[in-house]
Specification:
The protein has about 80 residues and is an alpha+beta fold. It has a domain at about 45-75. Helices cover about 25% and strands about 20% of the residues. It is elongated, with a radius of gyration of 27 Å. It starts with 16 loop residues before the first helix and ends with a strand. The relative contact order is 0.11.
């Protein structure tokens, strides 16, 4: 009596042609990335809302002070 059955070895599945095309960035994406690098990279800024009701845009940091009332906004 045989307790186990040998399974045939499976070949590794090769990615299809469309899957390989998805991995490569589109030429337009390459142009946008290189243009952003030439411009100095993205500027990190966010829209903050204070408890006093003032909305302002400031650089992304761990604490930002409200320019209207001076209260610090922590993320």
């Amino acid at each position: 009596m045989q307790l186990t059955t040998r399974l045939p070895k499976r070949r590794l599945a090769r990615p299809t042609r469309s899957a390989r095309a998805e991995r490569r960035p589109a030429p337009q994406q390459l142009d946008e990335a290189s243009a952003a690098r030439r411009a100095g990279g993205p500027e990190d800024s966010a829209l903050y809302s204070c408890m006093c009701g003032y909305l302002f845009t400031a650089a992304v940091t761990t604490t930002v002070g409200c320019p209207h009332c001076g209260t610090e906004q922590a993320w």
